[in-house]
Design brief:
Mean pLDDT: 83
Largest sheet: 3 strands, parallel
Order of helices and strands: EHEHHEHH
Oligomer: single chain
Distance between the termini: 31 Å
Helix content: 40-55%
Shape: globular
Structural class: mainly alpha
Low-confidence stretches: none
C-alpha cells in the first residue's frame, strides 16, 4: 500500500487503513508506505538510468521503487486534487516518475 496523502488523518489514509485491515484479515501480508515524510526528488530527465540501470538520485524513492518492483500487488491511496487535472496527486506522480529506471531494466530484460 502506498499512501500519498500529505495529511495524517485524511480520507485517503482512512481508506488505506481500512483496505490494509481487510487484506490482513484475509491472510495477506501488507506493508504500508506513506509518502508524507519521504524525500523524493524530481526526475532530472538525464536518462542515465538507461545506461546505469538505476537512478542517479539518492533519496527515499530508491527504496520505494525496489519495494514496488518486489511487490506482488501495489495499491495506491491518493487524494484527488481539486485542480484542473483531477487524475492523481502530484506526490504519486512524482514517485511513479522515479520508477523509470526500474522500468528501463525490466524492458531491457524482456527484449533480450
Amino acid at each position: 500500500m502506498i499512501s500519498t496523502s500529505l495529511r495524517s488523518k485524511s480520507n485517503s489514509e482512512a481508506l488505506a487503513d481500512a483496505f490494509i485491515k481487510g487484506a490482513r484479515e484475509g491472510g495477506n501480508s501488507v506493508e504500508k508506505i506513506t509518502l508524507q515524510d519521504k524525500r523524493i526528488a524530481f526526475c532530472k530527465g538525464c536518462l542515465a538510468c538507461q545506461k546505469r540501470q538505476k537512478c542517479v538520485i539518492d533519496d527515499d524513492a530508491v527504496e520505494i521503487v525496489q519495494k514496488m518492483h518486489d511487490a506482488e500487488t501495489i495499491v495506491f491511496a491518493t487524494p484527488l486534487p481539486v485542480g484542473f487535472s483531477r487524475t492523481t496527486s502530484a506526490r504519486l506522480a512524482l514517485a511513479l516518475d522515479r520508477r523509470e529506471a526500474s522500468w528501463q531494466v525490466e524492458m531491457s530484460a524482456m527484449s533480450s
